[in-house]
Amino acid sequence: MESFSYYPLFADLNGKKVVVVGGGRVAERKVQPLASAGAKVLLVSPELTDNIRRMAEDGRITVKERKFRPQDLDDAWLVVSATDDRDVQRLVVAETDKRRIFCNVVDIPEMCSFIVPSMVRRGDLCIAISTAGRSPAVAKRIRMDMEEAYPVIWGLYLQLLGRLREFILSTSADSDEKKRLCTALADPDILKWLTEDDWESITAWAETVCGQGAGKTVEDVRSNA
Question: Which backbone phi and psi does 63 adopt, to 5 degrees?
Fold first, then answer.
C-alpha cells in the first residue's frame, strides 16, 4: 500500500446537505452526530430502523424510502455510504468522484475520500483519534484513555474560558494586553477549582486577572451550568 498521511480537519456542516445511503444500524449511528452538527441530512434507503423513522418524524432528518439515485447527491457537501450492498457502494463512490464530493464508505478505507476518526467530546472540546484505518481497535483503546484523562468537567471548563475570553476582548483595548490575558485563562487552577466546585475562588481569580466585572461572567456561567 502506498504510504500517505490523512489531512485532519473539522468540518462546519451546519445547514449543509449531507447524504447518508443506507438505513440500518450503522447508518443510524452515522446520522445522529451529523444531525447534531446541524447538517441537513438526507437518508436514502428502502429499509429503515425504527430510530431512523422517529428521527424523520421529528423533523431531524429527511428520508427517501427507496434505492439510491445519483440525483440524490445534487447540492450535497458530504456523503456517507452505510450500506453493505457493494453495487450501491461502487455507484455512490463513482458519483461522488465525478461530482468532487467527499465520501466515506463505512469500514472500507480504500473506497473513502475521507475517514471518520474515533472521537471524545466534552462540550466544545472534541478530540479526534485516527490510526489511518490501520487499527480501529487501537483507536478505540486510545479513545477510552482520553475519556478518562478528560472528564466531563472539561465541557464546563471550556465554556467558562470562552465566556471570560469574550469578556477580555470586549473590555481591553490594547492588543498585547488582550493576548496576555487570554493566555492567562489556561491557568490549571481553574480546572481544579471547577472539579472541587469552588466557584468562590474562580470568581476571585477572574476579578483579579481579567478585570472588574469578570466575576459577573463567572456567575452567569455557574447559574447555567
Answer: -125, 135
CA distances from 149 to 69, 135, 142, 155, 190 (A): 44, 21, 10, 13, 16
* Second CATH level (architecture) for the domain 17-116: 3-Layer(aba) Sandwich (3.40)
Report pLDDT digits (tens) over 130-179: 998 889 899 999 999 999 999 999 999 999 999 999 999 999 888 999 99
How many CA atoms does the CB half-sphere of 31 hold within 13 Å? 31
Domain ranges of the chain: 17-116, 153-223
Among 13, 43, 49, CA closest to 31: 43
Digit-coded pLDDT (tens) for 21-48: 999 999 999 999 999 999 999 999 999 9
For the chain, what percentages of helix, strand and coil (3-state, to nearest 5) are there? 50, 15, 35
Instruction: Please tell me the distance from the alpha carbon of residue 98 to that of residue 51, in angstroms, as a whole number.
Output: 32
